[in-house]
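Weekend entry, working from home. Most of the wet-lab plans are on hold until the incubator is repaired, so I used the time to fold the two sequences that have been sitting in the queue since the last round of cloning. Logging both here for the record. First:
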Amino acid sequence: MAVSVVDMHGSTMRDANLETAGKLQKLLDELSATRGHTGEARHSHYNSVLVSVQATLGDVPLVHGMTSVPDLLRVFSDGCLRGRRDRSPERGAMKPEHILGIPSCIYTAAGVLYPERNVALVFRSSVETDNEVSASPWDSGHFCNAQQGSLRDLSQEQRRSLFWSHSLPSPAYREYLVHYVASCFDSATDYIDNRPHRYADPLGALTHDRWQSRIFEVRVRERLTVDAPRLLAVFIPRYHRVTFTEDFDRHEQALEGAGVSIRYYGTREKLKSVVSSWMRSHLGITK
């Protein structure tokens, strides 16, 4: 009997969904086992904060950092962010992409600016419905280089396998993010503010600073449209305001007219802290 293309596509999607569900359940089980090893106090903490963490982080926006204002102007001109291999084919893949097998993508983090940058774009979580994403509880660059703890002496293939065993698509990664934060942090606020964790994660990643694993890295495949329906906020150094062109002013006015917040921060402010403060306000965190 002939199998239609639609049937084949549906079967592939069901297989992918089952694979994701199985991977998510395995990761949740590992979190549960780690909580069990720590004692009743940790179980009580997890149960007491889970609902509030879900309410705060379940729909948390994505943050993308940029090195320079000229980069932002090019993005506004192009109308999208693009992965480096798409943007500059001659430069090829970055080291983590090569070692870990990461496709060309735009790097963001769930609710947190990482690393420190000069410009930040904050996207609505709804961009994940229009784009293919994968997310993991570490920065891929540091994961690729770290030699501490459970990463010590891993071969390149073992490291790649471990990385992808902890990478999930949307919306599954958001469920894992909520349980991860509730299991390891005092509160959602501590995650947003990049504060130290309270309890260990299953692999001990949070114990080693070089993992930089207090973020969830969310990778958006190939390109991400930059427009008012997708953006929540843009953060720009105040000292650049006088150098902008009429073309930028038109972009700014159009975005602000559509409800996007354009924030200029001072030379004495750290952009990470500025974004964190804005994020707490946006998420309704009052303490």
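Second, folded right after the first finished:
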Amino acid sequence: MGNKILDKRGNLSVRGQIRGQVTIFIIIAVVIVALVLGYLLLRGSLVAQGVPASIQPAYTSFVTCLQEDAETGINVLESQGGYIELPEFVAGSSYMPFSSQLNFAGNPIPYWYYVSGNNIQKEQIPSKDDMEEDLADFVEGRIRNCNLRGYHDEGLVITMQEPDADVDISSSRVKISLNMPVTFEKENDTAVVRNHEVTINSKLGGLYDSAKTVYEEENDKLFLERYGIDVLRLYAPVDGVELTCSPLTWDAEKVFDNLQEAIDANTASLKNKGEAGDYFALNLPVDEDVRFLTSRNWPNSFEVLPADERILIATPAGNQQGLGIIGFCYVPYHFVYNIKYPVLVQVYDGEEIFQFPLAVVIQGNNPRESLNATDATNVVPELCQYKNTEVQVRTYDTSLNPINADISYECFGNTCAIGATEAGTLKEDFPQCVNGYVTAKANGFKNTRYLFSTVQSGTLDMLMDRVYDTNVRLLLDGALYNGNAIITITSDYATETIVYPEQKEISLGEGQHEIHVQIFRNSSITIGATTTQQCIDVPQGILGIFGITHEKCFDIEVPEQIISQALAGGGKQIKYILETDLARGSVLEIHAESLPLPETIEQIQDNYLLFEDKNLEVGFV
């Protein structure tokens, strides 16, 4: 029974037993309090403060939506060079093949550097602030579409007010703070949660910083152009001399094919780190891995001079009087190349990839000139620094309903961002300019420009025409056509081209449109191999010392070619399109007539002449 204590009367004492029991009760109480506190702390991390248990699953689903939307936006930023909302598309030209975006596996990615169709060097590098703003807008635009229908079916009433998101991008995480009152009501339980926050473990910020470092290294050292020039000199005739009395010839198409194949392979071999002496190791000042990709299927341009059609010819020298006695003839050659091709740069850590494209430009066998590498958004023209004229801008649709639009001002080639209309109105200071342009941009509307001088205060009302995504149906000789065609529609506000039937939707607004359709069908026209003869005078043995020569001829062969697609239908038409046709979701139906399927080169040329006189029938159904 343990130790017993006798009192003065000799009776057993129970004080020792009582003390032991009290100690046990204290320990149990401490454990219970700890468990309760632990539960409350854990519960606080799992349950939003003030949200009843009956509502908690719905709120948890809402926060999951917020996280998924944020993760989707981060993926878009990383895959589109730091953009979610793409800059305005600018087409290329035959001189410069680059548009303002590279289409990579169906995903348009804005170039960080490119040369416009009119030979102007362009940069469009987003800042981190731009990315944060883009992601915030993306989350605000999607969060109200969170699918909570299952909870509605259970009798839960959910009311969402206007969202206001704030995004903070750091090197290893992205924090989303959403101010958006959400009310949950179920039977006698009601909860209002105003502030919601999620943190995504993402290397977006760090990858972006490294991508900018790679870009700045390229812009400073032009290492991609220099590797391209190495490939050019290894795989194409550039400069040289050969001892021969016969002309040297090269097929330019074969030269370009070899160059493209070599550029693809050598660009893909470039890497960030490598052993000493590794030709392909760039040793860039970034910790992440870097990959460089290009493809002959992307827009590119290869030019060479001098060239006679497709043939590069170098004629011999040294067959002048007196040199033939030793049989000494030589063929010097010097060809000048202009080469332009895109490279997609991928900076990655594990499975997370940030990518951006840039243009590689080699002009006259030399790399292009460097630009000062700066964020395009941080370059503020001097004009924009002095905004001192208050102007009120009001934006409406054609029914005079106010719409929200981004407002900018163009003057002397400079564009100044002014702000955005709220409820269709903006009152802001503009830089002073005579005959500048106020530009309004809004989703679902034509970009609108008004001539407006800002030498004194005033008010400008801008009407913006809506554009609609419209389905296109093409018929050939009265029957539905699903073969290859190129459809181009030109208006006063845009030019859009679709490749039919892969693309069957185009954005149209009210106004005059020129519709241009070219239909291509399979053909098997063979351009036979040709041989042309070229003759030169060469010294005649030992008599050459006396200037006696004889004619020597050589053949230049052009290999056989096959044309697999030929123009076989189409035409042109000018049509005024009404907004009423577009608004009701009508299909733009284009009726074209066929042309004879050509079987010879001459018939292909005839079809292009016939095409000029072909008209289309265009209507809405």
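Plan for Monday: verify the second prediction. The radius of gyration is 36 Å.
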